[in-house]
Amino acid sequence: MASMNRVIIAGNLARDPELKETRKGSSMTSFPVAVSRHWKNGSGESQKQTSFFRIVVWNNTAVNCAKFLKKGQPVLVEGRLETRSFTADSGETRYITQVVGDNVTFLRKGGTESAHADEPSIL
Question: How many domains does the chain have?
């Protein structure tokens, strides 16, 4: 049986991206994307639920995201889900699920134009 791990997230940056460099010299940028869902409940009242997703991107995409993206900007991220564990200061094992982005599309307000993170010259 074939397996697939693919996710597409469209939302707004909840914080400015943070660019870091690994010990081996690779660039890594992380940022949260807020995605809101709107609906009406049984009484006809408008409801809203916002979910936040941690996005991690690497290398040229990381550099371009850190350079061109700011809090509040709309983006579309394509990638895969990844869960990793770490040991907290308390000694407890914690788990984090994040989206490892393969492709980040910079959207303009209104969503009519876009540019890929690997092609900053068309911004």
Answer: 1
